[in-house]
Amino acid sequence: MTENSTNFPAGALLRSFALAYGVAAYVAFNVVVIYCVGFLCNFLVPLSIDRGPAAEPLWATTVDILLLALFGLQHSVMARPGFKARLQQIIPQPLERTTYVAVSSLLLALVMWQWRPIPALIWDIEAEWARISVWILFAAGWFIAVSATFMTNHFELVGLKQSIAYFRRRLCLPSEFRERVYYRWVRHPIMLGQIIGFWATPTMTAGHLLFAAVMLIYVLIGLYFEERDLLESHGEAYRKYQKRTPKLIPRLHKNSTDAS
């Protein structure tokens, strides 16, 4: 349990770089996620979903779709086992997840930096109590998304655990999955929380609607492939989990066995 599981040399310089790389990727991830929350609610950030460089609606739509497509393509391709195997031929295996997190953070930052607002109004809730209620829902969505990462293994999910283990010359085995809290109700609470965060806004512009709709499509497509990979990895155990636990929408009746 003390030797690294890769064939790469684990000298002091490389291990120190791995640790610094993991910490930097983790910091970048947190900064980008916090900025994304401000980006979506137009709060305390210089560029947001509705504030940024002006552009003609057709050009803005084209740019925004291309940005989101690039982000979604990277997320989907880098998450596939085949790509992971190829990447691990180039970099030490413990740094694969760190690299995924780092690239994802950079591309999401690019999306927000180059986003072109489309200000046409879709809806605008005027009642103060209703606006507050929607903002509470927005906050709840992001709370679910973030807190759900700590119900599996937050530091493993973002690659920091693997980087630290590599630095210490320890074997980093994947954590055993447990159906904690949200995971007893839905199989993908992180995605559920993000979907709520994307859509919950009292003032919906065309640009915000485009972002929310494309990201929803990406999540649904991404979950299809992720579920396939999980079935291949965990077999019958995951199939039983699918049968008793909905994908995204919690059941009203616990005894139901249909997967949503």
Tally the beta strands.
2
Distance, first to last CA? 40 Å
Number of helices: 10
> How many domain regions?
1
The biggest beta sheet reads: 2 strands, antiparallel
Major sheet strand order: 1-2
Class derived from helix and strand content: mainly alpha
How would you explain this protein's 3D organization?
The protein is mainly alpha-helical. It has one domain. The chain is built from 10 helices and 2 strands. A two-stranded antiparallel ribbon has the order 1-2. Helix 2 packs antiparallel against helix 4, helix 2 packs parallel to helix 9 and helix 8 packs antiparallel against helix 9. The chain is globular, with a radius of gyration of 20 Å.
Offer a quick outline of the entry.
The protein contains 10 helices and 2 strands, in the order H-H-H-H-E-H-H-H-H-E-H-H. With 260 residues, it is mainly alpha-helical. The protein has one domain.
